[in-house]
Amino acid sequence: PPPPSLVCECVRACVPAREPTQDLQSASRAVLFFRWAMPTACRTLSRRATAVVSRTRHKSSIIAPASSPSAPPPGFPRLPLLGSLPWFSNLGLPDGSSVQSLDEQHESWAEGTRRHGPVWRVGIPGLGKGISGDLTLCADPREFVKVLQAEGKYPYGAIQLQWPFIVWATKHGRTVGKLFTRSEDWRHIRHGMQKSILPPAAAAGYAAIIGTTGREVVLNAPLWDDAGSFMSRASFDLFAGLALGRRIRASDPRPGASLPEDERFCVDTIEALDLLPDVIQDLPSIAMSSLGLESPMMKRYFRAVSGALDYAEAQVREMLARLDAAEPLSTAEEASYLASTVRTQRAAAAAGAADALTDDEIVASVSVALVASVDTTSSIATWVLAHLAREPEVQQRLREEVAAALQQHAGSLAAVIEEELPYLKAVVRETHRLTPALVISSVKEVDADIDLAGHRIPAGSLVALENHSLQMSEALVEQPRAFRPERWLAGAVAERKGTPAELIDHPLLSAPFSAGARKCPGSRVATLEVRALIAGLVHNWRIGLVDERQATVTAARPPSRRRCHASAMSRSPRSRVPSLKVCHHEAVAACVRRSHPLYPAEHTSSQPLSSHGPCRQEKAEEFFCFAAVSGGA
Fold first, then answer.
1. How far apart are CA 4 and CA 406, in angstroms?
2. pLDDT tens for residues 294-330?
3. CB atoms near residue 363 (< 10 Å)
């Protein structure tokens, strides 16, 4: 490597105080050299390049069309191997702080839209296409409809971004790998697996078992010190109940409550889901995988996903053997997704249908559904709890609605979640607006050239729907940082009709389950599960802050985006919680930081939460506590 003095001189030469365009071109040519030559110089260059981008950023509205028709979309520079990381991973925010990591996805994606307009490009190795990770972001759902219309016969979905799983499935010859392809194999299995779960009538058929399991699960909440862990385990219980018709009791932490193999399955699945986003964007893993090698992080992921899928497939095959042997099933097993799928597919095979699923394909589809069931459901439910804990009036109004509905339906939680209670639905929708489980809710590859907001998008481009910045726009949402479920009640929605603000009611912004032919097949049962968890919890428990001081954000310490507190649920305000992780992307932790830069000192519990991305494993403080509600189950 060259001496530091020469490198520093090169930095000054490449990023002088002259024309911004020249600065960016020079910086782009130099970054790879500095990345190899001297990490310190690369960090210096990244800071200077970030300042250049900040000076030249676009001021356009996130819903305004491009000024020059058919122009390429603006965005961050993209370099081979590095993509836009030197710029995108250190963004400056309007409040003077900065996003220091791609993990803080809420603010980094939204800031890109604020700078460049409704359609823009970025390079994210591991997520985007090609050696620079090209990805086009679209923040206008009306424009994204064009992307869905250009999907083609075998559409692309976010599942294709999970290249580590694809590598694992290919290496081990697993049938489940077919679900991650763009081929007739995918179309065949997907068509068969969704028949018994995606249609509204099919999903509603699982409300009874979700309601029954939910009533049992919510009683375990005070036994946990960690909100994310409880919600993950509760999600396992709910989906295992409807998929297999049996209780794995993962949400009960008491010794002997669950079988060791069930507990191992939960641990492996949570570890695999937690590692996956890191492996996807890990440059050493990407490079080693291209050479047929496995990085240490990939090996950990492969071990976890192998354990989870082996367990899931064993459970499915055991039940198939019982069906083949004509053994009697319990009422819950008879009503399960697996039994329904087997009956449907075997009836189709008996009728001579060429598209009937084989047993191996049934095993693959149900197994991957079991492993994937925890992710989005637990994230949504944990965020809802965070808002309810800080908004006691909202919580009480929701509790009264749930109590009235339970009284009307003779205490049946299943009937309540089928009814679509207006305020419960509004609370979940407002949670998704303010703190979405996924900021990028849909990723597609266009099979033909299209025009998005006046920008030409060539065939083969990856386009993602960025759903957060538009819903936080002051031009469309009154007090966008306030948690106000009332904006989603029928009267408020009707008032927005015919105004620019009705854009926030677009169906593509309503949930984090993607859209089109690759929409999550379990989206409707996941919605029922979230309703069951939230309705059951607010009916039985009063959810509050363990330490009321967490309701006030002060500026006593400088903002820290590297360290944040994890949320917790505790029976005792005095108990301390060890290192924890919260939900899949652990985003709920960021809302309780007393040093949060977006909140002034006078912030109170009735003021809004903000949405920042995942925290890492840190020492936690208690967040939630539960007090029994009189009249609860």
1. 71
2. 999 999 999 999 999 999 999 999 999 998 898 999 9
3. 24
